[in-house]
Amino acid sequence: MSWLARQKFLGDDSEKVFKGLKIGIIGLGGAGSHIAQQLAHIGIGNFVLVDPQTIEDTNLNRLVGGTWKDVEDGTPKVDIAERVIRGVQPDAKVTKHRKRWQEVADDLKSCDVTIGGLDQVRDKDELEGFCRRFMIPYIDIGMDVHKGDKGYFIGGQVILSLPGTPCLRCYNVVTQAKIEEEARNYGDAGPKPQVVWPNGILASTAVGLTLQLVSPWHPNPVESEYLQYDGNAGTMARSAIWKAMQGRACPHHSLQETGDPSFDLRKMRDASSAGSISSRAVRFRFWSWFMALFG
Ligand SMILES: [Zn+2]
Question: Is the pLDDT of residue 267 over 50?
Fold first, then answer.
């Protein structure tokens, strides 16, 4: 019996499909460490891990897999994630970069899905633009803690962004005002509050959105999603702006700018009709969506 026998409902060929998938994780801190761990358990075979930082003691409250010894040794966060992945799948293909994602964009072009747990609004905006350019589904995760009159409020969001669907700007997660404020505060905003359990919930939600893209378990898979987390109420609900944006074209990322010149749709269609399993499983699954965009 396969080690993945208990998740056969994800598709009869899911073990093979998942082994062929390549997923990029940008940021291996709070949310990214959970994502790497879960995707390893699911059987994803290929990872591109990007994070320039080494672990510090103030990361230990939320970085899954990190230890005090790692803090003493100054272990890179990508090395911790790799160790967690290999603990489950010793033969996983793991490409690690101790750099900013902008410096390793070539390696990200071949990912089937990219998941970002970036703090900076400008960074999120640029990563989404890059993913759209190369037709890679992008999932964005963000978490915030706000102080109110009577205490603290924990919130967050998980957004699925595919070319042609509403983007982070459409959903007001990225705005020019936020980018400018961030630039003004650069260096003196101080560390943002972060805790492990909302990160875990947001990361798990992102993994669920990834799996509805790459496997047939979900009866109504979505091409765009905006889920808001209320950590005080303990709820995850679709944002009101999601509904308002459905059916509206994104004015921020032109479809004319989308597409890798080296990417040949006809070859993909041939491979798809031949029934072969490719690392492009996501694009096969959303074939009608790709054809509507470019066909
Ligand atoms: Zn947009």
Answer: no
| Cα 147 to middle of ligand 1, angstroms | 30
Amino acid identity for residue 252 in this structure? H
Name the pairing type of β-strands 113-116 and 225-230: unpaired
40 CA from centroid of ligand 1 (Å): 32
Looking at residue 284, its pLDDT comes to 46
Q: How far is the CA of 166 from the centre of ligand 1 (A)?
A: 5
CA of 283 to the centre of ligand 1 (A): 21
Kindly provide the b/e burial profile for residues 155-180, where b requires at least 16 CB atoms within 10 angstroms of the residue's own CB. bbbbbbbbbbbbbbbbbebbeeebee
The fraction of the chain above a pLDDT of 90, given in percent, is: 75
Cα(292)–Cα(263) distance, rounded to whole angstroms? 16
Distance 126 CA to ligand 1 centre (A): 13
Count of helix runs (H) and strand runs (E) in the chain: 12, 8
d(CA 62, ligand 1 centre) in Å: 32
**Whole-structure pTM value:** 0.89
What is the Cα–Cα distance from 209 to 218, expressed in whole angstroms? 10
Across-strand partners of 150? none
Burial class of residue 115 (count of CB atoms within 10 Å of its CB; 0-12, 13-18, 19+)? buried
Ligand 1 midpoint to CA 114 (Å): 18
**CA 189–ligand 1 middle distance (angstroms):** 27
Topology of domain 12-264 in CATH is Rossmann fold (3.40.50)
pLDDT surpassing 90 at residue 259: no
Type of residue found at 203 = A
